[in-house]
Amino acid sequence: MFYRFRLSVLFLIILAAPHLSAQWVKVTQDPEKGWRLMVDGKPMAVHGVVWSFTPIGENYSYSLWNQPKELIQQMIDTDAALMQQMGVNAIRVFTDVPPEWITYLYNRYGIYTVVNDLFGRYGLTIDGRWHAKTNYADLRTREAILESLRKNISRYVDVPGVLFYLLGNENNYGLEWDSNAIENLPVGQRLEVRAGYLYSLFEEGINIVKEIDPTKPVGIVNGDIQYMNIIKALTPSLDLLGVNTYRGDSAQDLFYEGVASSLNVPIVFTEFGADAYNVVEEREDQYNQALYIKNQWEEIYRQSYGKGKTGNILGGFVFEWMDEWWKSAGMVLELDVHNTDASWSNGSYAYDAAHGKDNMNEEWWGIVAQSPVKTGGIHQRRLRAAYYALQKVWTLDQYECTGEEISAHFAIDLRPLANQARLNALEQKEKEQGKINFRGKIDVVGVTSFDDIDVGGGNGFDNAESSIGEWAYLGFDLNAFENVDAGITFRLQGHVPKTTFELEEYSRYEAKELATGAFYDTSAFVSDSTQSGETHSSLPYAEIYDAYVNWQTKYTDIDFYYHNGHADWGTEGDYFHLLPESFDYIGMDINGSNAPFGIEFTGKEFLDGAKIYGGPEIYWGAKPQIMAKYYKSWDKISFALMYNEVFSRNQTEDGNMKPIGHGRRASGWANLNFLPWISADFGALFSGMEYLGDSYTHVERGANYTYTSETRNFDVLDTLSFKANLKSEIFLYTRLFARYTYAGRLTSTSAYTIRDGSQMGEIGTGNHHDITGGLQFQFGPISVMPQFLIRMPLSHPSSLADGAPARRALTEPMAVFWNREAYQAELVVAFDPTGDTYFFDWNNSDRENAKFAGYVSFLYSFYEGPTDIWYYKNEFGNYASFNSGLPAVNGLWSLKSRFVWNAAPKLRFIAGVHGGLQQSWGEKTRKVNYWGGSLSARLDKWVFSTSVDVNAWGKADWMRQLNITFPLQWTLDISRGFDIPSLLNSSNRIGVRWKGRTFDEYSDAADFPNGEEWRMELLFYLSMSW
Amino acid sequence: MLNRKRFLYLHLTECIRILFVCIATFTALAGCVTNYPKAVMEPPWVPAEPAGGEGEAEGRPDPDTQVPVYFSSSDLPLIDGNFSEWGGLDGPLTRLAVYGGRHVPEDAEAFFVLRTDGVNLYIYCRASDDITHENFLPGSMAWRGDTPELFFGTALGKHKKYQTGDNQIRLVPRSKENMENVDIVVNQRTVDGYMVSGQEGAVFGAAAVYSETGYQIEAAIPLSLLSIDALAPGRKVRLDFQINDADETERDRMIHWMSDKDTPWFDPSVWGDGIVVELPDTRKEVPDVL
Q1: Do A355 and B189 touch (CB under 8 A)?
Q2: Chain B residue at shortest CA distance from A865
Q3: So what's the ipTM on this one?
Q4: All CATH 3.20.20.80 domain ranges in chain A, comma separated
Q5: For the domain A25-432, what is the CATH superfamily, name and number?
Q6: Per residue in A630-639, pLDDT tens?
Q7: Within 13 A of A631's CA, how many CA atoms are on the CB side?
Q8: Global pTM value
Q9: Contact A276, A384 (CB under 8 A)
Q10: Would you list the DSSP string of A779-822?
């Protein structure tokens, strides 16, 4: 028994031994037959793939290795099992791969890993400063690259599963830095001189890697076979040449001969392949992808060891394992859309090469496609014909076969493979979509409220009441056509829970106003015995919640939007923000609006740059209107023209609509970058000619701050707005910026969406001119941005002039409120070490991948002038004016901050502190000094979050309009997700929340005069989606 | 009522104070960091200076240069390897080395002449090349070997992507023995003559003849193949010219007429100008190579 046990252990040790130690890998050359890769003395042809794993909805910033260990393992198990079945024996990945996973991949699946250091390919940070263009001539840059290389490679010494090392990724295509020395050279020499710096540094890098790990070969990844003569001269220590090449189905003999005659090293294709989308036929083309990849491998076999040719290729890494859905649309947009636009043309891929058309579809290079449907948190893989083709191809021993065997072996009939793959596609589509895809979501919330209000006085639960609410969302996506996607979601309302916190809970659970259509008609659906004495209402109903259609035609994309979000056109030349974005707040429907509701036409081909968008409510609060835009951009100049026709201008006819905008507007914008270091934007807006000739009361400031009024008529200048921005990076680490705006009295548009942490955005209203300036100091991850604003209305508020009639924003085309006279200064300090997850992106709480990131903004404001009379939406859903405006006020301040700390792979904290001294947004003169803070923590699937606000307004905007504050407000929430829960909303989890507030004389003067009462709620909630 | 002037003064003072604090913070932060002085190493690689090489200054034409495209309805060139019809006509000379060191006329330089009869485009290229190789690469990849290229378009507005009427034309000489073995590659696709057979007035073909100092090619391509409706005197066109030279294996030198970057194949905005003119009655002295 004992011996049997010892033998078993011995047997296991023997079995495991090769897998417990690092391998000795080298390239060897037989003078007659050519080159081979030898692993522990045994020949190995490289049958590899470039492993891509970025899930749908993520982009280049996604790091698998920062995910929970279970997810990493699941991802590897999903892909490696398929690779193993296919015959893959090596993958190529970059140096962020942790060594333990290399060993895992090798031990469990027998797949080797080639570790690739980027060697400054896509820019690098040196001494805190980001350099987008790597200058290989700069000594400090060279030092930093080698330091980084040394650090990276040291992690992989003696790691079982490492096959060899590669440096760079076609860095010869990125030799773009400028310097006087380079510019003084003849044009034809510049690239070569730059290349000399690169390849000499490669030589230094190779020697460092060999010094650290002498057991593995070291190569570079070159873009095709450019600069062979320089490599020969400057990189003599090279063991193998990695080549990224896109030459169609054949690199041609000359390629191999060229390398053989220049360098005495073998080749490994580090990227090659074919994309699976045919731009001519506008469809997935698995057959041609498989055909090209098969032909490429046939050539590799014929050119490899012992075939009588150059014998100098060891194999290759097919680009790539799986489609990546982030490579179009600027790499940050449409991450969940499988884009079919190609980014460059290559005639060597003849199956879809067409004149004037790009045919390289970056999102379609996978030999495996990914599906939106997930299994165990991983997107399902769909095998393409190329997968099956390679599975057959790699069964032949690459080094030991003969030319005849190759001919026989590669006579593969791809049609059945393509058919099999097509069946996979159909099956997958049925699985994920069918012709109609069903999706759903259920939200249930139970609320128990307690309060100590009025009844009995003193402390204690004077009232306690419970209720429940249910919502179901049923969605259908139509996928019956290649070029049309459409979907619709219905919402079914069960009970409405009783809440004592105005609309906040309804908003959070995405409830809109009920049958009355009122915005906050509390009597209709909020039961509050202390206020109305009514019982809880339950109003079941069904409605269309959202809908979309995307129809792609040859020259236009036609999109129908109904309550599903639309981005603004700020980056496409909408300089005056005629079209604001219209996304609901996360987990909250904006005031019951169904915006965006409209149809958009986006031009393609010769219509590229043109857009037309129109509908009943194309953004929140919009009147029926249409917009047209033409945008064009070149290297140094961009321009855009916009036209906007609003079909309703009479506020009294549509009292439920916010009275913004006028009848007709047009704008022009240009961006110029002709001078080095300076970028300039200029724009003009024409708006509001419908009011030309109408009279208004002009209030003017005279000497000694005296004001006089007179009646004037709107003239042409009142319909014009001009704006200019200047930006310069002429100083090291510093971006200077300044903006001047002259906005005529009739030129109101929309406020800008702020995306940089600042609190001082462009207000978008007319009747003022302002100047803003500042600088942004950027040193590595640290950004410090001081800025100022001075703003002056063209016509001052009417209250300043004796005898002037009161001016009401609701009924007059021009007023003073957001555009009041102001002097502001702000300081924004941010720490964001990972630029790929921009800290101020809307979804940063879920995406931030830095260990720590944060920002603080402090704004100091002087409102030198009062305001005119603003308006609000009353309980009947109509707009109404306040009785007076706000007075001038000084010394207001506001502090905002937010911090993200990724303490461990599964543990994330998000915290924020805010405070300030501010005015209301209505007519109340009382200034409010408030502060508060929040903290959220996510541990695996658990989320804990809490917030405290002292002397602050309620969360709804109207509370600030009415200046209703509470001495103390708090929330405490604990939940567990069914998947890794988002920190942006409360979906897909079960949880409990405790919230409450106390009251004083400012909380609601009518109902809470005693000032010592409180109200609390305990909520249980469940949210499930599929 | 407040004393507004004083009020404003106080606030501005406060504003300035805040700005001062901000700037001081910025200065302090800037002062705390360590700056590394720029130090650049000597170039480890400088291309060998060829004998007789010309500099860039001589290489690029005046941007206002207009390449003539000679129009005539008669006396048209025959595509037969006899190049006498091209004698005495002006054309562009590629002298701007984009890749591969300096421009060396005897190593890689091409002289082009363009003609048209309103139905076809006739192209002549005389390439100087001290080491010539027959080009066996597929048409889409033939730029890696010895080939002249012409970029020709009728879309005049500035545009950075090819439009209808913009063309990349590559003439690929395949054989030193058979002068008719020349491929015409239009927009990355090798064109077959049958595509234009039967079209009235259309001529399609090419011929190449090698010599000690290089090779000459003449070609005729129907304008319909180029998506160009017609060419007549006075019509402006856009164009550029390129010679690819492979002395050892694949291309080691690329010389342009106008653009100083390897972008004409996808960006027509870098091309130069041309104009269709009547074929002159009298011609200059015929160059010695002809």
Answers
A1: yes
A2: B4
A3: 0.82
A4: 25-432
A5: Glycosidases (3.20.20.80)
A6: 999 877 889 9
A7: 16
A8: 0.68
A9: yes
A10: ETTEEEEEEEEEEEESS--GGGSTTPPPPBTTTSS---STTS-E
